[in-house]
Q: What sequence folds into this?
């Protein structure tokens, strides 16, 4: 009888674990976590690349833009983490580590200086902000989490402003 009780307990415990894991996987693989991951990587790239620009850029307009990127993307990253904590209970904010694509872009920037750095930084910023605007616009419209949808909608004008500004800088180089 003891073995039957243990078997029943283990069976129920196993079932509980399977259900719990499937719920965690559902939270971790839906549109919200994917948006959070992409937004986090993009924001971290903006910060790291702009910190490099503060050291290596030759144009004052690029340094001013870079300072704004560090400030704005640090603030929006903090806000994103707050939204994740309040609207996605159980989900840990993603690691701010870059993916391979963005790591390679940082490595390229590290190897440049002067006008070559300026051109590459500006090109990367235009590309990154186009991607960010598309990501945030899409999630603000069709996202599956109200807190994140609101965050995306509120952050979108800032990102569009960054894209407009870096496009102006690009056109003046």
A:
């Amino acid at each position: 009888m003891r073995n039957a009780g243990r078997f029943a307990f283990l069976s129920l415990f196993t079932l509980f674990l399977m259900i719990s894991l499937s719920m965690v996987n559902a939270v971790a693989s839906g549109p919200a976590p994917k948006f959070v991951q992409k937004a986090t990587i993009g924001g971290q790239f903006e910060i790291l690349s702009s910190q490099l620009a503060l050291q290596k850029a030759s144009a004052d307009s690029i340094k001013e833009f870079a300072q704004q990127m560090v400030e704005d993307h640090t603030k929006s990253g903090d806000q994103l983490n707050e939204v994740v904590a309040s609207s996605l209970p159980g989900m840990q904010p993603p690691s701010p580590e870059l993916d391979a694509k963005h790591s390679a872009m940082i490595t390229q920037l590290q190897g440049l200086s002067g006008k070559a750095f300026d051109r590459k930084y500006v090109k990367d910023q235009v590309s990154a902000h186009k991607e960010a605007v598309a990501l945030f616009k899409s999630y603000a419209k069709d996202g599956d989490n109200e807190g994140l949808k609101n965050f995306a909608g509120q952050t979108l004008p800032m990102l569009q402003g960054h894209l407009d500004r870096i496009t102006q800088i690009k056109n003046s180089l």
